[in-house]
Structures are given as C-alpha cells and as structure tokens.
Amino acid sequence: MNKPSLLLACPLPNIDLPELARSFTLIGAGDRRMERDEMVALLPNCQAMICNTSQPVDRAVLDAGPILRIISNFGVGYNHIDIAYAAQKGIAVTNTPDILTDATADLGFALILATCRRVGEGDRYCREGKFTGFEASLFLGQQVYGRTLGIVGCGRIGQAVARRASGFSMKCLYHNRKPLEKSLEQERGLQYADFNSLLEISDIILISTPLTPETRHLFTLEQFQRMKRSSVLVNISRGPVVKEAD
Amino acid sequence: MNKPSLLLACPLPNIDLPELARSFTLIGAGDRRMERDEMVALLPNCQAMICNTSQPVDRAVLDAGPILRIISNFGVGYNHIDIAYAAQKGIAVTNTPDILTDATADLGFALILATCRRVGEGDRYCREGKFTGFEASLFLGQQVYGRTLGIVGCGRIGQAVARRASGFSMKCLYHNRKPLEKSLEQERGLQYADFNSLLEISDIILISTPLTPETRHLFTLEQFQRMKRSSVLVNISRGPVVKEAD
C-alpha cells in the first residue's frame, strides 16, 4: 500500500522523523519554515500537512491541496487558518491546546514582572557597561505585589496566570463574555468586572482572549484612554486584539 | 538653639526637604551621590548623614566626622559601613529593613522568569527588528512551572520568594545555617536541604543571604560544578557571595 504524503512545512524541533517516515512519505525535512509559494507547489500530492501559526493557510493554499485530508497545526492558535473553508472541503484541522497553558502563563507573568520592574531596560544598561552603583531612583519600577490585575479573556491561560498572581497577593479581576461559575471564581480568587470597570481599576491588564471577530481590535484608543496613565498592558493573545495604529 | 547639620550624601527621591530643614541644617541637596572626597570634606561639621549602599563608609570616612552621631543608610544592606568601628565611636547606624522585602522578592522572581524564559534576549531581538514570525525553537526557554527552586539564605526575602513560587507549583528547597521552625516550613511550603544536596537537586537557585564573612565566596567553582548543567542561578544578595573570578 502506498503511504500517504505528509508536507513538513515548518521546523519541528526534537521530532522523530524515522518514526514519522514509517507511516508517511515525508515531503520536506521539517527544518525550516516554507514560504507560501513552496507550500502551494508541494501540496497537490499531499494528504497531510504540518504547519505553524506564522503560516497563513487561506482559501488559495487550501485549494492547492486537492487530496489534502488533515492539517496538523503546531500551536494553539488557529486564526491563520481559514477553518470554515477547510471544513467545507472536508479537511480536518488540529491544534495543540493545553500543552502550552503553563508555559504561556509563565511567559505572561514574566512579561508583567519584566515590564513593571524594567528588566529589559536594566539588562541593556548593564550590558552597555553603564552601571556604576546603586541609585534609589535608577530604574525605579512599579510594585507588582498587592496590586490589581485585570485579566481580559479568562480561559485556561488567564486562570493559570491568576494562580501565579495569588502568590504575589494580587487582586484579580477578569472579564469574559459570560462570567465563570461562582465556585470557580472562588477557587481561583477571581472577581468578575465589566470591561470598562476593569480598564479603569486595574494597575496591570493582561489580554488572554482568543482572536475572533468579536475580539479583533477590542483595544482601541478609547480603551487606552480609560486606563490609568500608569497602567501596564501585557498582550499574550494575538496581536490584532490591539489596534496599534490608533 | 542651633539645628544639627545633616549631610545628604546620596539622591533622595520624593523627599520632603522643607520638612527636613525644620529640624536640620541641610548640607547638600540630596540630588546626587557624593564622592568620597566630598563626603570627607563636609563631614567635620555634621552630626548626621544619609548615604546609600554604594557609598563605602570605612574608618577614614568615620574619622572625618568627629561630631557625627548617626548614619541613616538608605537601604537594607550595610556591608559597606564599618559598623564595628562606628559602634566603637558611638555612631548609630540605621537601615531600612522590611520596606523592600516585597519589591526585592518581586525583582528576584522577575529575574528567575526573565532568565528561564529569555526575556532580555527576546527583547533585544525584537527591538533590532529581527523577529519575522513564530518558530517553535526560537528562544526556546526553560519551564519555571513545577520545577525545583533552591533558596540559599531563606530569611524574610527568601520566604517572600517562596510564596511567589507556590503560585507556580514549584517545589521549594532551602538552606540556612539552621533550619526554620517546622511550622514555618509547612506554612511556606519549604523543605530544608543541606547545601550540597540543594545545589545538586535544584533547577533554579536563588541566593538571598546577607553578605557576611561566612557567605563571602560561598559560591566558588566547586559549587557551580555541583549544579546541573542547565541550572539557573539568580543572586539577589550581594555580589561577593559569588566568587566570579573562579
């Protein structure tokens, strides 16, 4: 029996290629991100494809794969894939939910702390050899401990960030389309707030929504104007949730 | 009655100078760090001095103040002041314990996360315009969540870091000259380890000892060789606890 062909369109660290090759004819070495043109050129003979979140898979790419049956997306987000059109063509799309929840929450909290305590600036200052001694106001940052964190989009990752915030005695507000179960709120120490109140009250705001038509440009100039002037905003969602051009 | 003279030898952010001036004749404006020569030149007429932790106050500086009665150190650490000689001369030395415990613990945890998740490197990479899209192995860091943290010198600050680590489901080992009370260990989720075991087992090591004759060069090449090759070391104590030249 002929093995199906699998297009390895993105780098796949630590993958067992010989094991994969027992089930598939491998197209590509999984060592680099293929450009769109290359994907389109190779797809006609492939039943399966592995790609990642920086490779747009739109109608034209999907149309390039007449025998394509499955796209395995290496990542959680799938806003780069036209899933409605894929469904219409009978192409399954898979992603990797949960496996990155804790890593993403760690990184989100790393960015909160790094921004408030000015780690990047301090790092550059020291590496440039400018540090000569302690000054009380040198890179004076913002306290994280005990302050109010507003989580916009409090799903798996938002809740994991709230767990981390509890160790810093932070007050955690959140905003979702609909509130979490009361028991879950209590367990995670989360308090529901309407969107505008959250923007106005929070010292630090974390965005952890999926990117959907409703969340695209959820943050425009108006939302920034509602925030405190000292607010810190950390977006671990997709970029377009914030309208940067505003 | 003549007011005593107060030497403001270091920058004092947000200080109420007029209030201070009601009780003292102020020498200096508290807007910069005075060099040693300037301190020595001004001390002969001062009863009091405010300095910070980057201004060595040794015998010669203390001898320059025949009427000096008090040194208020702006900071927690006082290893830069010859306190034995100050005591012998009847000069009181004060510091600011506790007020910085949470800020220091926040910064300590910020450095743990920034190092494990490679925040400084990623920050520079993005600012240099090199980021073109997601790659799974680009700045692949180390997980913080669930790993083993070894705290060397688990006083106020070390314990405050342990509280933060609990939100990341970390296992916390610690080493002190003598173990903490059992009840305190349980409350903070801390487990005592002898120094060598801590070095060998921990994924991340935090140094939060005071600098004393016993802790100077506590970390030499030998201690580094005992650590895992992947270990992350964060020193929020004084520099000389680590013998960098080794």
Short account of what is shown:
The structure is a homodimer of 246-residue chains. Chain A contains ten helices and ten strands.
The most extensive interface, with participating residues per chain, is:
A-B, 44 and 44 residues
Q: Identify the overall geometry of chain A.
A: globular
Helix content of chain A: 25-40%
**Rg of chain A from C-alpha positions?**
22 Å
Strand content of chain A: 15-25%
Low-confidence stretches of chain A: none
Distance between the termini of chain A: 57 Å
SSE arrangement of chain A, N to C: EHEHEHEHEHHEHEHEHEHE
Q: What is the CATH architecture descriptor of the largest domain in chain A?
A: 3-Layer(aba) Sandwich
Mean pLDDT of chain A: 94
- The number of domains of chain A is 2
Backbone structural class of chain A: alpha/beta
The CATH superfamily label of the largest domain in chain A reads NAD(P)-binding Rossmann-like Domain
Q: What is the strand arrangement across the widest sheet of chain A? A: 2-1-3-4-5
> Briefly, what CATH class of the largest domain in chain A?
Alpha Beta
Walk me through the structure:
The structure is a homodimer of 246-residue chains. With 246 residues, chain A is α/β, with parallel strands linked by helices. Chain A has two domains: 5-94, Rossmann fold (3-Layer(aba) Sandwich); 101-241, NAD(P)-binding Rossmann-like Domain (Rossmann fold, 3-Layer(aba) Sandwich), CATH 3.40.50.720. In chain A, 33% of the residues lie in helices and 17% in strands. Chain A has ten helices and ten strands. The first copy, chain A, has helices at residues 17-23, 36-42, 59-63, 83-88, 101-116, 119-127, 156-166, 182-188, 195-201, 221-226; strands at residues 5-8, 25-27, 48-52, 70-74, 92-94, 148-152, 171-175, 190-192, 204-207, 232-235. In chain A, helix 3 (59-63) links the parallel strand 3 and strand 4. In chain A, helix 5 crosses helix 7. The mean pLDDT of chain A is 94. The A-B interface holds A 10-13, 33, 52-54, 74-75, 102-103, 105-107, 109-111, 113-114, 116-117, 119-120, 123-124, 133-137, 140-141, 143-146, 163-169 and B 10-13, 33, 52-54, 74-75, 102-103, 105-107, 109-111, 113-114, 116-117, 119-120, 123-124, 132-137, 140-141, 143-146, 163-168.
